[in-house]
Specification:
single chain; alpha/beta; Rossmann fold; two-stranded antiparallel ribbon
Length: 265
């Protein structure tokens, strides 16, 4: 793909990981590939720098935000939750980057596509809460990745989601009532933020998709992984990434229009 100055810029916040004593800002290539190939945008990695960022300036320069999955959990103090169990992986620098970035993006009508950990961050950033271990709740199935499977089989379709009639996802999919998705998470939304609408549920009642109420652009979170190579070519993933890309292009045109008018004058 050849880049030009009109290509929308999508920010992808990184995880901060410790690799044998080295701290590394990391984003999986499947997310970057999805932004380029499925949305037709350019990816810009956002390091996990917390309040060292000027979030308003950052948002002013971006045309979309893609929030990725990750091995860590959102720290529960961000939503007044109970302390995590010993051994739970957290990423404080990511939390302190994504949560304010989400709030700025939503207020500025910057397109947001939140995946897995990302949907949890979207909910927490807007005032919702999380279940930390949904497989321990009565009536819930185990939504975690089966690590006994070969890596090539860990993201095969696992369960059905039921799409809310009349919702944003229902409209995007042309009226689909359900779909089959993969599953690789232990946390999930407990109480949705007041600003979020529930767009889909799993058969055991786990919230699988949300949208930002009243948003003027694409603002959707999903609990599954539409970017994974086993999912990216499915009709649902194609629809989501295409709609996200279109929203980012609309944002890019609006963001650059004053400059273009000045240059033409």
């Amino acid at each position: 793909m050849i880049l030009d100055d009109s290509m929308p810029l999508v920010g992808i916040p990184a995880c901060l990981i410790n690799d044998e004593g080295r701290r590394i800002h990391r984003v999986g290539d499947k997310y970057v590939d999805a932004v380029y190939d499925a949305s037709g945008c350019a990816a810009v990695l956002v390091p996990a720098m917390g309040d060292r960022h000027d979030f308003k300036t950052l948002i002013d320069r971006l045309d979309g935000i893609l929030l990725t999955g990750g091995a860590s959990n959102v720290e529960p103090f961000h939503y007044d939750g109970q302390p995590s169990r010993r051994g739970t992986l957290h990423d404080s620098r990511r939390d302190h980057t994504t949560l304010p970035l989400i709030r700025q993006a939503v207020e500025a009508d910057v397109p947001v596509f939140a995946v897995c950990r990302g949907i949890q961050e979207l909910n927490v950033a807007l005032g919702g809460t999380l279940h930390q271990l949904i497989h321990e709740l009565p009536g819930k199935t185990d939504h975690r990745m089966d690590r006994k499977l070969p890596s090539s089989e860990r993201f095969v379709p696992r369960h059905t989601i039921n799409i809310t009639p009349g919702g944003v996802l229902h409209d995007l999919t042309g009226g689909a009532v359900n779909a089959i998705v993969n599953s690789a998470h232990a946390q999930a939304i407990d109480k949705p933020a007041e600003r979020l609408s529930v767009e889909a549920l799993s058969e055991d009642g786990v919230i699988e998709c949300v949208s930002v109420k009243g948003s003027n652009t694409f603002s959707i979170g999903v609990q599954w992984h539409p970017e994974h190579p086993l999912a990216i070519k499915t009709p649902l993933s194609i629809t989501l990434f295409k709609a996200f890309g279109e929203a980012c292009r609309s944002r890019e045109r609006a963001r650059r229009e004053p400059t273009r008018r000045t240059q033409a004058a």
